[in-house]
Specification:
By secondary structure, the protein is α/β, with parallel strands linked by helices. Helix content is about 35%, strand content about 20%. Helix 13 (about 335-350) links the parallel strand 12 (about 325-330) and strand 13 (about 355).
Length: about 375
C-alpha cells in the first residue's frame, strides 16, 4: 500500500514514530471481534490511523438502543448488519485500507480459521463464553489479544498473550480462572452503561494495538488497567501468570474445537432447553404452558402475550404460582432467564419442562423487526 503522507502527517511527525511506524501500521492485520460499544471506537481510530488490513466480525444488527454509545452508526442504519454499516462508514473514512467483514458468530468451529489470518486480535465482545473462547484460541495460535470490558461506569483494558521483557505472558484465564455464574455479572442490557465509557475503553484498546504494532511506548502487557469515570479513579495492576493446568482448558486445536464454552460458563444446562426467538411463539402455545418474566416489574418492553411477572430475586418464594408443567422463562438478554430456569429446575424437579429464551426479549424484538 502506497502511503499517503498527508493523511498521516500529524502522527508521522511524532518523535519516535515517523514513516517506519506508519509503514508497520500499513502492513498490520488486525481483527476486531464485536462491532458494538467497544468495537466502534476501535474500528474508527484504527481506520483513521492507517492500519492496512482490518477485519470486522459481528453477527448482530443495529438497534435503536445501540445508538447512545455505538456512534459509528446512525438512525438510518437501524436494522442493518453492523458489519455492513461499519464497512460503509469506515470505507468512506479511509478508502486506502482494506476492510474485511465477517457477518457471523465466532465459535469453536470457525475461530481458528478466522483468527489465523490476522496478527492482532481485539476482544470487543460482551459475554463470558466468547471471552474464554478467544483467550484459548489466541493462546493456542500465539496471537496477541487486546482485551476490553465495561460495566456501568467502570472499564478494564489489558494485553494478553504477549511476552514481557522477562519472557512471561498472561491470559484472560490468569485474570479470571473461573467464569462467574449466570446472572452474577449483568451486561449493559440489564445493568445499563453510560454512553461515553465504551468510547474511552475502546479508544484505549486501539491505542494498545497501535503501540504493539509500532513498538512505541509500554503496552499493558501482563497488566490490567481499570478506570471509573465517575471519579476518575484509575489503577494498573500487575498480573502474575498462573499455572493453567485445569483439565478443562484446551491446549491443542483439536481440544479447542471440542470445547463447549456455554457449558463451561454455565450458559447451557442439562434439563433446561434453550429456545430461540423463532421457536418462542410456537412453544409458548403448547397446552398448559406458563411464561415467566423474571425482570423487575418496571422494565420494558413488555411481552404482548399472557405471562407471569416474577422478578428473579422473588422467584423461589413465588414458585407456587406456577400451575403448568411447561415453563418458559424470559428476561431482557437471556442471562437472568437462565438463572431463573436453574432455580425452577432445582425447586420443581424433572416433572416440569423448563425452557429459557436465548438472547431474551432483545433478540425476540429484533427477530420480529427483521
Amino acid at each position: 500500500m502506497m502511503l499517503n503522507l498527508e493523511r498521516y502527517d500529524r502522527q508521522i511527525k511524532l518523535q519516535g514514530f515517523g514513516i517506519e511506524a506508519q509503514e508497520k501500521l500499513a502492513s498490520a492485520k488486525v481483527l476486531v471481534i464485536g462491532a458494538g460499544g467497544l468495537g466502534c471506537p476501535v474500528l474508527q481510530y484504527l481506520t483513521a490511523a492507517g492500519v492496512g488490513n482490518i477485519g470486522i466480525l459481528d453477527h448482530d444488527r443495529v438497534s435503536l438502543s445501540n445508538l447512545h454509545r455505538q456512534i459509528l452508526y446512525t438512525t438510518s442504519d437501524i436494522g442493518k448488519l453492523k458489519t455492513k454499516a461499519a464497512f460503509e462508514r469506515l470505507s468512506s473514512m479511509n478508502p486506502e485500507i482494506q476492510i474485511n467483514v465477517i457477518s457471523e458468530r465466532i465459535s469453536t468451529k470457525n475461530a481458528i480459521q478466522i483468527l489465523s489470518h490476522y496478527d492482532h486480535i481485539i476482544d470487543c465482545t460482551d459475554n463470558f463464553p466468547t471471552r474464554y473462547l478467544l483467550d484459548d484460541a489466541c493462546r493456542i495460535l500465539k496471537k496477541p489479544l487486546i482485551f476490553g470490558a465495561i460495566y456501568q461506569y467502570e472499564g478494564q483494558i489489558a494485553v494478553f498473550n504477549v511476552e514481557d521483557k522477562k519472557g512471561s505472558s498472561t491470559n484472560y484465564r490468569d485474570l479470571f480462572p473461573q467464569p462467574p455464574k449466570p446472572g452474577e455479572v449483568p451486561d449493559c442490557n440489564d445493568a445499563g452503561v453510560i454512553g461515553v465509557l465504551p468510547g474511552i475503553i475502546g479508544t484505549l484498546q486501539a491505542t494498545e494495538a497501535i503501540k504493539l504494532i509500532t513498538g512505541i511506548g509500554e503496552p499493558l502487557i501482563n497488566r490490567l488497567m481499570t478506570i471509573n469515570v465517575l471519579d476518575y479513579q484509575t489503577a494498573i495492576f500487575e498480573m502474575p501468570a498462573e499455572n493453567l493446568t485445569d483439565k478443562y482448558i484446551p491446549s491443542t486445536i483439536m481440544e479447542f474445537e471440542m470445547m463447549d464454552y456455554k457449558v463451561q460458563c454455565g450458559i447451557k444446562q442439562i434439563g433446561i432447553k434453550n429456545i430461540s426467538p423463532a421457536e418462542f411463539y410456537s412453544i409458548s402455545k403448547l397446552p398448559e404452558t406458563t411464561i415467566i418474566d423474571v425482570r423487575e416489574i418496571d422494565e420494558y418492553p413488555k411481552l404482548e402475550i399472557p405471562y407471569l411477572s416474577i422478578p428473579l430475586s422473588q422467584l423461589k418464594e413465588n414458585s407456587t404460582q406456577i400451575k403448568h408443567k411447561n415453563v418458559i422463562v424470559v428476561c431482557q438478554s437471556g442471562k437472568r432467564s437462565l438463572a431463573g430456569a436453574q432455580v425452577l429446575q432445582e425447586i420443581l424437579g424433572s416433572d416440569y419442562n423448563i425452557s429459557h429464551l436465548e438472547g431474551g426479549i432483545n433478540q425476540l424484538n429484533q427477530k420480529i423487526n427483521e
